[in-house]
Specification:
13 helices, 8 strands, globular
Length: about 325
């Protein structure tokens, strides 16, 4: 009950602080940088509605300054010798592989209790999330200072959750939203490629997407190695030693990859913290089924309404049937 109490109070606190974006933009005393960012939100919302057929409605028409760097802190956990994440089940969202807190202290306290039980744990700050249509989601200060193309990508991702969401299937939900994020960004950049700066921005975004995919591939390459290790019969002490070697190799390989990126350092923060089964799962959750969804989008001739219909049909299948279809779709 304590957990649900903080979740309800946290959400109600956000709702009570919403300010209409158009009203803020029209305020002559508004900070110039904030005004520019809010005007970008108006443009991105229009594009998401008209060009991506996403359920914009009243979402992201208001703004809230939480005066903190993250809106939530999610706790992730996995057994010490398993890459299968721990799940938590909720009345609306179903079973998901994280537990969210509006207080960082509460999140870390809970993570400590899981670590004491022997779990690998990771606490990650979350800048935005979707209420799945239960409320009109506001824009938060936690994201407002992002570059415009990154802001657009994030909103496309969160709006996708309102279009398709399967309770209890985190990988399906996040992979679908990530696919819409990537496709939406590609189309948004193409449509806005009319200013002097836009060609450079298009090149930057394409390069960042490539680096992101290579980062994901690198991290996911360690999963089967660890699975084989965990399924073996080595003594626990030796398993821990081998696990540490696999993770160290992952760090070393990242340094090699970073050199190929000419020093691009966006993922330094991810590698700076502790890497364990729980943290590895945060990458797998968002990207595992993206190739399958991209294949389905291609089969739909890149017509988004047709693609959405096919994804909604997948969402109605049983978990086993859905996984089978996604496996067949994966190149």
């Amino acid at each position: 009950m304590v957990f649900y109490g903080q979740a309800i109070n946290g959400q109600l606190s956000i709702i009570s602080k919403r300010e209409n974006i158009q009203t803020l933009v029209n305020d002559p005393e508004i900070d110039a940088q904030l005004k520019q960012s809010l005007e970008s939100i108006i443009s991105i919302r229009k594009f998401a509605n008209n060009s991506l057929a996403l359920p914009v409605e009243k979402n992201y028409s208001s703004y809230v300054d939480l005066q903190r760097p993250f809106v939530l802190w999610n706790v992730f956990a996995a057994p010490e010798f398993s890459v299968t994440p721990k799940d938590w089940c909720y009345p609306i969202a179903g079973c998901v592989s994280y537990r969210g807190y509006f207080s960082e202290d509460a999140a870390r306290k809970y993570a400590t209790s899981l670590a004491d039980e022997g779990f690998d744990v990771y606490v990650g700050g979350i800048a935005a999330y979707s209420t799945l249509g239960w409320f009109a989601d506001p824009v938060l200060n936690t994201i407002i200072n992002r570059e415009e193309h990154r802001l657009a990508a994030l909103l496309f991702h969160e709006l996708a959750h309102q279009l398709v969401y399967v309770p209890g299937d985190t990988q399906f939900n996040e992979s679908f939203a990530t696919t819409i994020e990537l496709e939406g960004l590609k189309r948004w950049l193409a449509e806005n490629n009319n200013s002097a700066m836009m060609p450079t921005l298009v090149e930057q975004a394409a390069r960042e997407q490539q680096y992101r995919q290579e980062f994901v591939s690198l991290v996911q390459s360690s999963i089967p190695v660890l699975e084989e290790l965990y399924s073996g019969a080595l003594p626990l002490v030796e398993k821990r030693q081998q696990k540490a070697k696999v993770i160290q190799k992952l760090r070393d390989d990242y340094q090699d990859l970073k050199q190929q990126w000419s020093g691009y350092a966006a993922y330094d923060g991810w590698f700076a913290g502790e890497i364990n089964n729980a943290r590895l799962n945060t990458v797998a959750t968002y990207f595992n089924h993206v190739p399958a969804f991209e294949a389905l989008l291609a089969q739909s001739n890149y017509q988004l309404p047709e693609f959405y219909n096919r994804v909604q049909a997948l969402a109605k299948l049983s978990s086993e049937e859905r996984q089978e279809v996604l496996t067949r779709l994966t190149p």
